[in-house]
Amino acid sequence: SPPRAEKLRADARSLSRTLSARLGDVKPPPPSLRLSAPDPLPPADPPPNLGAAEQRLRRFQRLLQALPPTPLLLQLRSDLDNLCSLLQAMAVLKGCGDPPGPGPPPYEHRDPPQLEPELKELLEEAPHTVAAMALGRLRSCVEGVVVGLEGGVGC
């Protein structure tokens, strides 16, 4: 592949590994934490391709923005933002077409927001658990991105 594509892939791989390591240092947030995002948690399974990876990471990004900003969270947000930009650039270089814009997720059209009952309960009773779960899932997702980048993930 062209040198620029190879450099993007190497940068994305390196940043994904850094992000995964930082996520390993996350302590569960305090019980006083409140999530303001209506997001059901994004899944932890590895995204199938570049576009899906970028969209999934953007959902985690929105979730992180709902958490009180600690220095580590601010760093994670910044890493995520950079990783999304790298994945987007890779998709464009590979000729994957324009990445779909972040249109309103389907739950915004529902009334009330359809959270899984257990997630809804968790949010009410233990928002810190939801935050810890979200960060755990983000780590699995990022590890999936690393594997995909090593295997030469497609559009």
UniProtKB/TrEMBL annotation:
Which PANTHER family does the entry link to?
Answer: LEPTIN
Q: What is its main location?
A: secreted
Q: Where is this region: Disordered?
A: 1-51
Its protein name is Leptin
Lineage of this protein's species?
Eukaryota, Metazoa, Chordata, Craniata, Vertebrata
Q: Which InterPro entries match?
A: 4_helix_cytokine-like_core, Leptin
**Any one Gene Ontology molecular-function term assigned to this protein's record:** hormone activity
Entry keywords, A to Z: Secreted
Organism annotation? Gallus gallus (Chicken)
